[in-house]
């Protein structure tokens, strides 16, 4: 196999002509299972629209459609100095963002702090105390010797939370490895603010946000065509701006029906009733053996956490079928461990530039101790392609559904997450699916499709958990200053001694 050189294969169809009959049959079966045609994409998108609408009703549905109390897009002319805190599973990130008077500009300084593993299963006081300590360190380092008024803070708390107010949030359940007693079902803001107060940290929490909403707002700050924010990573989610008159579950709040509010869809739960998504037997196994069977159906078919596991389940199944000669005589025990492969495994296979799939061969030898034959390599490559392609095409159904619901003919969508940023061809496959669902014949202004002319484009997002969180704090403070207090629990506390509430000349 050595010495065949890095000749790139544009398509593998020709390479499959000499495959043994049993493997060709299996490739055909896998294509039938995983390929989602145009008609199915359209049917999924139409059902998605009705499920988005159902989630906004008082009765609700599978998709939570959480109101965020982030009201409206930024203008690009927001000013002031704001802090942003992003509490992830591995790190804690603290940012200070200055919004100058130039449209769409910002300056950012930031620090990362490790989130100690023992905190994730410790007690709540230790967690909030540690976070407050990090914020205190950040301020002391960057503002040594300065006397500060309270800086407004946007807190990206990317765990499922119910919000009746933008400055509070009730944790529904821990994710990302956290399991701290006494926090689920309670408002996380009071204990956090208590920890800040005990240390005398000059900060006022102004907005608790989800990273998807932050992604949309940060992207809209620099791009006036931005209409949605999406995360395609370990999990999946989206946010978009809804007219308050179209949110029946908030009818009792007496909001102006023409006002806009960001909705955090939490759309990973789409089709938990299993009415429309083309689930395979492998998807059923993933769901059945997950910690929460019957939940997050959409996410389990498209998110990075599950792509490697889908791939692994198919390989084990092929090996165990007596009529198929696959990894014959090999010890596949490394493949028997659930979640031993992640999405990067498929990504590496799809990125293999060699005609003879040498890199894929080496990955299996080095990581699994399995030496695939040339026909087996062809099947591995095709399987990675159909799983990766299905994820991208199904992802586009959610974007298309919001476009249909809001009657958007053109839009930009800000997207973030490891799958969107790193998985090969994900963007192009998603764009192709959007074209099929939304029946585009030509691009914007009659120009050819592609090359920046698609009517709806999914683009790399701005920093949602940093810049987005700060901007939402700015928008919230502006609302309070203008006397609009809907969805804000402590408007007076926000104005009292808050640095960014003062004229720009007094900014930090």
UniProtKB/TrEMBL annotation:
> Which biological pathway?
Carbohydrate metabolism; hexose metabolism; Carbohydrate degradation; glycolysis; D-glyceraldehyde 3-phosphate and glycerone phosphate from D-glucose: step 1/4
Listed GO CC annotations: cytosol; mitochondrion
Q: What range(s) does the Hexokinase C-terminal domain occupy?
A: 227-475
Question: Could you tell me the superkingdom of the organism this chain comes from?
Answer: Eukaryota
Catalytic reactions of this protein: a D-hexose + ATP = a D-hexose 6-phosphate + ADP + H(+); D-fructose + ATP = D-fructose 6-phosphate + ADP + H(+)
What InterPro entries does the annotation carry?
ATPase_NBD, Hexokinase, Hexokinase_BS, Hexokinase_C, Hexokinase_N
What are the protein's GO molecular function terms?
Answer: ATP binding; D-glucose binding; fructokinase activity; glucokinase activity; mannokinase activity
Start and end residues of each Hexokinase N-terminal domain: 27-221
Region (Disordered), start-end ranges:
487-508
What PROSITE patterns is this protein classified in?
HEXOKINASE_1, HEXOKINASE_2
Family the entry assigns = Belongs to the hexokinase family.
Q: What is this protein called?
A: Phosphotransferase
Q: What is the species listed in this Swiss-Prot or TrEMBL entry?
A: Cladosporium halotolerans
Gene label = hxkA
